[in-house]
């Protein structure tokens, strides 16, 4: 088979030697070969020298005494009447805006009203400059020298009072301790009080709902929830309300929604429920509820409210709703009513729910059940028993709490409910 010999590049007319067909030789305008005259070889023009000197800019030049002879670049002061150059800054090209003082005050007043109103929600809060609502100048630390000068504190004309010490040196302190010891020995030891009148420590059952484990479960539910539902007992809404949790959500978790559910409204008159709804609705959205699987009340209103919250958080695949409150207020019963089946373990006793648990209500709504938490530790034992925080079968000497409980209820209501006669005391 014969081989076909091709032409070498540069053999035909019009083609340059050393260049492949279809390719064009590019010249370098900066190379020394392309310069017009041989006299300019190795010589830099004025603009190149300025540019190279700009790269070598360092700090200011100083003399032997440390005084600045020549200031650094962009740091020398311009003479009067001379055109100065502003230092380049990357902030020129940032996404920033400037506001006038009137516009800032108007924004703070309007957004402050919306933020404090529980019935209004800020849409796309990440795109709103909510940091302007908090004026850092009011919360900044005060300069101590502006408050109290050095001369008025440590100088010869100081005004600060000298601290009163019990002893100026160690020997005076030892002598004072000896005197106090001798005086104590002279008085003698007081006899111990009788065991019958000694204050006994409170029983462990009255500390239910106050352990570190329960508080850890509470904060797990709060951190995992987008909407927090605080369940209140209609018989004592103010007593079963947790001010600590409300303050924590308002200061630390302001992006979470809080609503009240007034459970067990079937145990109080209608006018009582209506009055509490009007009073509590001034702080947060409040709903009346009666938790039962057969004839419930308020189920549709609560489901519609949760659907509205899911539409507000349309950027999320699903939202979580956490139920918190005192023990035995009906948190698990509300979840079972919404699910229309027994999902959470319930009992007419306090402390039935031990750990938090997830329940799926809809495709985009999850419910979280939380153990009962007791935030007000200043309640007496009788108050805890009235609120149902403890189990009565574990209370030692339960007859001792009859009088405090009866004093909270009018006698005619007890005689009407139990059809009994009048009494004078708990015995």
Features:
14 helices; single chain; six-stranded mixed sheet; 427 residues; disordered N terminus; two-stranded antiparallel sheet; alpha/beta
Task: Note down, in words, how this protein is organized.
It is a single chain. With 427 residues, the protein is of the alpha/beta class. 31% of the residues lie in helices and 9% in strands. It is built from 14 helices and 8 strands. It has helices at 46-55, 101-116, 136-139, 144-147, 151-154, 170-187, 212-224, 243-251, 270-280, 299-312, 331-339, 381-387, 402-406, 411-418, and strands at 61-62, 68-70, 227-233, 257-263, 286-288, 319-325, 357-360, 365-369. It has a 6-stranded mixed β-sheet with strand order 5-4-3-6-8-7, with helices on both faces. A hairpin with a 5-residue loop joins β1 (61-62) and β2. It is flat.
Helices and strands, in order, run as: HEEHHHHHHEHEHEHEHEEHHH
Arrangement of strands in the largest sheet: 5-4-3-6-8-7
Please give the alpha-carbon distance between the first and last residues: 129 Å
Structural class: alpha/beta
Number of helices: 14
Overall 3D shape: flat
Mean pLDDT: 76
Number of strands: 8
Q: What percent of residues are in strands?
A: 5-15%
Radius of gyration: 41 Å
Oligomeric assembly: single chain
Q: Largest beta sheet, briefly?
A: 6 strands, mixed
The level of helicity is: 25-40%
Unreliable stretches, pLDDT < 50, 5 or more residues? Answer: 1-16, 26-32, 190-201
